[in-house]
Give the backbone structure.
Amino acid sequence: MSTPEFATINWRGRPVRIECQWIAPERTDAPLVVFLHEGLGSIAMWKDFPAQVCEAANARGLVFSRPGYGRSTPRADDEIWDVDFMHRQAHEVLPALFSALKLDDEKPWLFGHSDGGSISLLYASRFPDRVNGLVVLAPHIFVEDVTVANIEQARTAYLSTDLPTKLGRYHDSADSAFWGWNRIWLHPPFREWNIEAEFDTIRCPVLAIQGIDDEYGTLAQIRGIAARVRGCELLEIPECGHSPHRDQPDRVIVAATAFITKNRRQTP
């Protein structure tokens, strides 16, 4: 993987610096896979998993930290995310980042985990002609009680353990990353958040993966995608929690590589 670099976008009325890292950029004719991290993730928290996927799939890769995460511009102290925060990432931040990196003519594959999976789905819904396919790991498509319960436990842990120190290894501001994510998920109006109706416009291939033991959501999440998106493929992995790429990386890499290779061949 290359040394992280930074792109600047204008968002929420101010310049925002986005931490980016390229994988195998020399593969100029290879498909581009863009990795979107989870609700507390960053480039560093992916570790070497994106590089493994790109090597197996003979692809290029782009990994980035969303605003408020990693080494990207932290969330402003008075910036409170609203119920549409994932829509804004999909509809505003991602297009602006692609433009800043001169990727407007690319049709990437999006590889998203958790909130990143939801953002990937929302992007493909809004811009169906700008994406070749999706691989989503443990995405959220509506809010479940089990999700809220575990996010409440995370709040307690952040206030009473060394979790801020641990997160500080991956983010310039652990508070920015944690409270931006935690407060909106525990905001009462967010309980009604549901993006299922938006899937009707998705036209690209979708592979949805979830652990059977996912502590942040039931299998109704990925099965709900399959009910709406024609041809969506599902992979439900036993002995696997909310992070399939950490719990069962080999299975995820094999499945994702086969999916990208198969559908790449079918793409004109």
In short: The mean pLDDT is 95. Residues 249-266 form the longest helix (18 residues). The CA atoms of residues 98 and 104 lie 6 Å apart. The two ends are 29 Å apart (CA to CA).
